Batch of 4 targets.
Target 1
Amino acid sequence: MKAIHIIISLLLSTFSALSQNAADILERAASAYRNSNGISASFSMRAISPTGTTTDSSEGTIDMKGDKFTLVASDIKTWYDGKTQWVYVEPANEVNISSPAGEDLQLTNPAILLRDYRMGYVSRYTGEATGANGKSIQNVELQPKNKSDITKITLQIEKTSSLPIHIQLEMKNGNRSVIQISNIRTGVNRPDDYFTFRQSNYPGVETIDLR
């Protein structure tokens, strides 16, 4: 019995250390973003069905500053100024306006996830590895504390920069979204109006207000 108690004690200590390590890693990532003075990066994204089939894929760029971001991917451009989001669909020449929050926002802006993880998720460190870019990464899993369409988020955080380079979201319906981030540049301090939709640049656009 004493041996069993020792083993249980060691296991509890290990899991406690892993949990703390995950929190430390995420705090460093959040701090690195806050101190970045604006980030610009390239990304690729895949939507994967429960059977493992890629149902959609896209590549593009994202600029982030604080809670704001501008995302350009294929025929879609997205602007978010911290409150309002504009999604311009080029083939239809229409822009959808909304005020996203919670999970809807986390799906498009990794910075929001880093900011809010403490409130909505339980974090777990799963070890180090070598990322697709050949650099050391730290793996962290996030699971929602409450009922959610997201069942798990896996983050790969580059050890040297403390910035996320790979994000995988697993959904309740079995679908997955995999985002790979590359060519990260910090100190890209865009003006605030860079993160808003300028209707004058899109003559004849149809506006659909979903707020």
Target 2
Amino acid sequence: MISLNDFKKIALEDKPVFDAHYRQFPPTHSGELFTTMVNWSQYVEYRYARIEKSIVILSKSKNIMILHPPSGKNSFDILKKVIALAQRENILFGFIKQNEKNILSIKFPSLKIIPDRDFYDYVYRASDLARLPGTKYGKIRNRLNKFTKNFAYTTEDISEENIDEVNEFLKRWCLWRDCESDELLENERKAILYSMSHFTDLGLSGLALRINGTIQSIAIYEQMNRNVVVVHFEKGSPDFDGIYKAINMETAQRAQKIVPYINREEDLGIPGLRQAKLSYHPDHFVEIYYISKEDLDTMPI
């Protein structure tokens, strides 16, 4: 039997634990990434427990606790232990991926497993975002062409040499967006600044775009598994229409050299963000599901 006492708050020094685990069991959803969890730890409290050769995540935000399915070799016995803990502690059981959904559907055919659309990851072909081919990308190409016509720009990798300038840009970006007036934006600001403070420790890569010698856009990304790069953050100045199209394309052109796919994370149910992500025509989604507490209580574990 496992208990809440088995869970430890995730901290930077736990990265080797996750690195070793994910070499054997690569993550497929951005929410599983160590970088995501440690970056956002001031907004969502993440804890983890090691159960045999699996890792189980417990997340808590705004008094909502969610137990995640175990990451590791498929084991129904461990899955049952996690579900039993959720039942005992009246905790939501969520962030269920397709393979775990399949197992649960076979074992519990009448169980209602609910899509959590706001947390679906968007996954694109890297070559599509790099080349923007065909008529479906026509509007994006037009915006990009207008940007490149109006603004001469250069790009460079984020490194120790320019990271102070990146931080200055991020301060300006938060002033433009008035981060302090929006809880999510303010916590995103904290998450980005944390990633910048531990850029090398977290093994991140990044791209900066300059106009007239000043950084006006950035992208922060990392390789998620052998097939996917995940883009954690992408920010641009509002003074240059089309700059997001440019940083997106430039990032994709780098990513396509190492992986076939780019994961651009979820939309959190934000209408404008959902529309923007859909406009780039995802190849597929990494679907996420949950089980209501009422249905969880009926499971014969």
Target 3
Amino acid sequence: MTIFDPAEGVPPNPAHDDIYLVEFPRSGITWLSFILGNIELRLAGAGEFVTYYNHHRHVVDVHQLRGGGRINRRLGRTFIKSHSTYNPDYYFVVYLVRNPIDVMVSYYNFMRREQDYRESFDHFVRHPLFGVGKWKEHVNSWLYVKDEPQRLHLLRYEDLVRDAQRVISGLYMNLGVALEEVLLRDALERSSLESMKQSEEHYRRSNPRVRAAYIGKERKIPRSDLLTDDVMAFIIGETVEELRAFYPDLLPG
């Protein structure tokens, strides 16, 4: 089984103004990458849009650079995806956080599908390498480090789901760009769940090696089937401080 190593994370040709999109795995970074890639392509006047096949061309995944590959900075801003824990070499950072309950459910389904993980969900959330303790470590490494010069913009996945237009407009205001409403609406439409699923399905039809859908709920164990009272209590108990800070509504009354 391949174990995720969060220690990697700097491209071979870093630039000071690179903007790193950072998350603990399964927090929504692919969706965010589609949105930002489509915005940047529109701002550049390019006749392209983001697809499942090409999205790492427009928003590079630093963990998937092959053979020491260098980043080609084609657009006005260079966004780079990363799962790294705190990295002082990242100057501009957009940190995407998602509540640990949904992250664990999504990550477990991902590991079953992609890494052939066959242990129970209870075993998974307690695992020292990718369980909820790792989520806690990742979040704390970014949000509580004392690094005043580093620029960090925090996004909650749940806020992105609730009002993507407001959240993305707020991010671009920090970047110094007032997005036109028509441009933003078009980018969000091209990055909708349905558009992403259609793009992935088109890609899957041309690649016989793809085993299962990455986007959506196909062949995934539902949240309700995994979250027993004991597992829920364990996740909440391990992350009570983080939940109090970012998700107080998830704490028991």
Target 4
Amino acid sequence: MTATHRMIIGTTLCMALGFAGCASTGNSNGTNFLYKNYTVAGGSAVAGEGRSVLFEGKPLALSGTGIKVGDSLREVTLTQTDLSPISITDTKGKGKVRIISVVPSLDTPVCEEQTHYLSEKNKGLDKMVELVTISVDTPFAQKRFAKEAKIANVTFLSDYRDAEFGKAYGLFINGPHILARTVMVVDANNTVRYLQVSPELVQLPDLEKAFTVAKSLITAG
């Protein structure tokens, strides 16, 4: 995929969501990333058919079978940045605690910040847990983002083919073909122990709470 094609895809998605411009990941350089004061969402939307999240106050319907705390991870195939398929239950962190961050598109400002925050502000958890980011961006776009942002401690997985992950977890937004902004913490037995679906797409999930839960699971183990 050419840079022009990636730009067209990113711009189209930004326009579909109405975000005020796409992120400029080319200026990101790891710890020098300039964080903005985005609102952190309070509470959580409920995943699944018949539920919705908001975009600037306007409801967007969710599709699929909703996931909830206490459920086991569902077998679903995603694509790695080398184009190889992998099940969400069989990533390199299998048998360990995992923090799964779901974003609509890496080429938007809030998603960019969410991913940097996961990578850079996890208080050393990346040495003990697997950090995962899932989006509908193509594997090529995810690989480019990771390289330009100098993020090497996050596993990037793409749901670009048929949004299989989004539909299996009740996080798929059919209209703009994106995933709802979400963070979940999964224990060593593949059980969801913490889940937050941002009720408003332009607000960050509470990653600090996710870090706290992940740390408690490690301590308990």
